[in-house]
Specification:
Helix content: 55-70%
Low-confidence stretches: 16-21, 248-255, 268-272
Number of strands: 0
Number of helices: 10
Structural class: mainly alpha
Largest sheet: none
Strand content: under 5%
Mean pLDDT: 80
Order of helices and strands: HHHHHHHHHH
Length: 272
């Protein structure tokens, strides 16, 4: 369960950072990539595609529809009819339509009253949460106690769970988007600072990390995005140049020695 104020728990924040763990920082061979965002045009296109698909299903004879499309058509037709009955003016409805609308309104009212009358169960069943969502058991038990106190039905309590999960997921997605944007901004600033030959400069940073760093350091730099920050990168570049100047370079590649590409990009760039 998320925190009561809607903010992600420590575990959820960690998971959000881990989601981006495959993104490599500049210090581990990463490079600037455009941040994928859905434009208003793309949203409109997706909406139009959905509407076109619904129209296709509604206008196609049942004999020419798959079993899945037939089920969708039944739902669409029912939704259309209920919308028509509820939104139409009395003078535009036939006597039969008025009877159907009254029955529809009564069915909805009865369902709402039944939910209130039913009340809380003796013991709540397991609530349904989306796959991948971690449940905070102590907070879930506290929620059950509160739900029981207010006589919430299993269905009403589930609706509140769904709403809270939706709210927290939106917050988590926002945090992740912000986190990724910060990393991208740092990367752009660093590239601009190092100049057009930034990849050559980064080779020196790679040499320093190769000699003094650890695999765990690379993971940390990638996950936190600090491997893109210009001040840290410049420090590693400077350190790499310092240790390079201390060594005599004869221009010959020694057997088993790592190439600049391997130092920069890690083991993924070993020469075959």
């Amino acid at each position: 369960m998320p925190n009561p104020d809607g903010t992600p728990t420590a575990e959820e924040a960690t998971a959000a950072a881990a989601t981006a763990k495959e993104d490599k920082s500049l210090l581990d061979g990463g490079d600037i990539k455009p941040t994928p965002t859905q434009t208003p045009e793309e949203i409109a296109t997706a909406k139009a595609a959905t509407e076109a698909e619904d129209k296709r299903i509604l206008e196609t004879e049942d004999a020419n529809l798959s079993a899945e499309d037939k089920e969708k058509k039944t739902v669409l037709v029912k939704a259309q009819e209920e919308k028509r009955l509820l939104e139409a003016k009395d003078e535009d409805l036939s006597a039969e339509d008025k009877t159907a609308r009254a029955a529809l309104i009564k069915a909805r009212d009865d369902a709402a009253k039944a939910a209130v009358t039913k009340g809380a169960p003796e013991k709540y069943s397991d609530f349904i949460v989306p796959e991948g969502v971690e449940v905070n058991q102590p907070m879930l038990e506290e929620f059950k106690t509160t739900a029981k106190k207010h006589n919430l039905t299993q269905e009403a309590a589930q609706e509140l769970i769904d709403l809270q999960v939706k709210h927290v997921q939106a917050i988590s997605e926002g945090l992740l988007t912000t986190f990724n944007q910060v990393k991208t901004d740092w990367m752009k600033e660093t590239v601009q600072e190092l100049g057009t030959d930034y990849k050559k400069e980064l080779v020196f940073a790679g040499r320093f990390i190769e000699q003094f760093g650890t695999p765990e350091l690379r993971v940390f730099l990638n996950q936190t995005g600090t491997g893109n920050h210009k001040e840290l990168v410049k420090c590693f570049v400077k350190a790499g140049k310092a240790i390079s100047e201390d060594k005599f370079v004869d221009g010959k590649k020694k057997t088993g020695a790592k190439t600049d590409a391997e130092l920069f990009y890690g083991d993924t760039m070993k020469e075959k």
